[in-house]
Amino acid sequence: MKEETLNIKPMETRGFRQFNLKKKLRISEALIQGLLFFAGILSIFVTVAIVYELGKEALLFFNDPDVTLGKFFGTTKWQPGIGQYGIWALVSATLTTSSIAILIALPLGLASAVYLSEYATQKMRSILKPILEILAGIPTVVYGYFALLFVTPILKTIFKDGIQVYNMLSAGLVMGIMILPLIASMSEDALSAVPRSLREGAYAMGATKLETSLQVVLPAALSGIGAAVIVGISRAVGETMIVAVAAGAGPNFSFNPLDAAETMTGHIARISGGDLSYNTIDYTSLFAIALMLFLVTLVLNLISQWVVNKFREQYE
Amino acid sequence: MENINYAIETNDLSIHYGSFTAVKGVNMKVERQKITAIIGPSGCGKSTLLRAFNRMNDFVPGCHVTGKLLLDNQNLYGKDVDPVEVRRKIGMVFQKPNPFPKSIYENIAWGARINGFKGKMDELVEQSLRSAALWDEVKDKLQQSAYALSGGQQQRLCIARTIAIQPEIILMDEPASALDPISTLRIEELMQELKKNYTIIIVTHNMQQAARASDYTAMMMIDDQRAGGVIEFDDTKTIFTRPGDKRTEDYVTGRFG
Residue B25 — left, alpha, or beta (φ > 0 → left; ψ -120 to 50 → alpha)? Predict the structure, then answer.
């Protein structure tokens, strides 16, 4: 150890000092705290306000003597103007298109995430990730016309007359392409966050790259991947433009992807864009659909959360 | 001396990161069923050298190795050598315990399974945990997460999973540096048990540990080009009592480092 080189005056020569330990008013601290609190409370307020408004108008719909929950959930034709209130006509299309989208986006997104995080060289990653992010930034209306004018004609050559011009398959496929970069990018973040020590532990056991990626890194990243899937599902269920353009313009209870059908979001967009007088059943029904949309998203989120909790492997 | 059985030999082994030479010209013969310690000041390349033994440095971009590393007369850096197979023969225990985020049972079974183990898994798990002196502590909670264990127990679990794949050599990279003194002692006792069946190479910062636990000691030091090298390699007793090199003497007597 070296000699003490710092020159500190001995205690005695410093003399007595009066310490001031009183609380000080720090304006910038208080200000920033206030601002941050405001930002937090604002988003909560907006959410509550939306739910309130939805609930209020939807209540008007359900209070109509003609509407019953039995009809709402128990029938499959939707045309409030003539007394048909079967929400399944719209829910079926939303579930079909979203399922197709997730079936496309989940495996492809996960595969590209594993490639980017475990296999790609630094250089490859620095090229591919920005491209993925550009893909995520394409306006959905462009995707919509891509589905209608590019994908549908291709499907036409495969299925011939079996497929309608507007169909859920084309919309679902393109929706899958749309959410793929989202799932890939978020999953890649989750995979990259898995500590290197876990990979090293696996490699030191004589594991191959594939065994390490799929059996050690992937399970450890599952909660982050689950979050990606939840966001992906929510995007798919809530997506409007693609389905409005390519899936069809009329409620149709069908789970056949080759059929034309209108999703909840597509229906809301179409009806609210037309002439609509306030306080008619057509008007209040939109809020009922929106509430249902909320519910579907919530249920799907709960299911994915449950799946993730069941299978994830938590590190630290 | 002719009958000595060497587990692994290095022949002018050098490790480079790009154009920088991190470890230069190491010649070592590591004896079978002994504990060989690698000591030296921080940054002298101890861990780099250790990681060269099971080709963990392959994962470091720009790292390449020259010279030879011989296991059973095969150069582990030969062109047709599969690093995955190398790591199955030469296991490794890391500085910070890194169990997999799986159950205690699965931590051991996983490595055996990917290595094609076909026997009775329950028996292998028990046997491995017993060899790592962990069985009595965990036998009632094999299905719990490995992260529920203490640091010392996690480290012994990592040793157990390494034993389960039956390697020839176990590399230990400061295995006790993150542990309390009691856990450290247990690891050292365990090493004495393990050397009956395995060859152990251990990197350690702790000179008492090297003196207590090892049979041979390699002293590493950096030269004026900042390349690390083994400056002295001998019986642990010799290194600590009458070292041949002045720098070794200064280091082991605590005059620097």
Answer: left
Rg (CA), chain A: 28
Place of tokens 């030969």: B78
Q: What's the whole-number mean pLDDT along residues A134-141? A: 90
Based on the fold, state whether residues A58 and A86 are members of the same structural domain: no
CB contact under 8 A, B56 and A216: no
Examine residue A3 and state whether it is found in any structural domain, yes or no: no
Task: Give pLDDT tens digits for A237-259.
Answer: 999 999 999 998 899 999 999 99
The residue range of the domain holding A18 is 8-63
| Contact yes or no for A166/A262 (Cβ under 8 A) | no
On whether residue A1 sits in a domain, the answer given is: no
Confidence of residue A307 (pLDDT cuts 50, 70, 90): confident
- Facing residue for A208 by CB, picked from B84, B92, B102: B84
Judged by a CB distance cut-off of 8 A, whether residue A243 touches chain B is no
Same domain? A184 vs A52: no
Least confident piece of the model among A118-132, A269-283, B167-181: A269-283
Chain A positions in Cβ-Cβ contact with residue B107 (cut-off 8 Å): none
Which residue in B152, B204, B8 sits closest to B91, CA to CA?
B8
Q: Which of A47, A63, A79 is the last residue of a domain?
A: A63
The closest CB to that of A206, out of B59, B87, B145, belongs to B87
Please spell the DSSP secondary structure of A250-296, one letter per residue.
S------TTS----HHHHHHHHHHS---TTSHHHHHHHHHHHHHHHH
The total of structural domains in chain A comes to: 2
Place of tokens 């013969």: B29
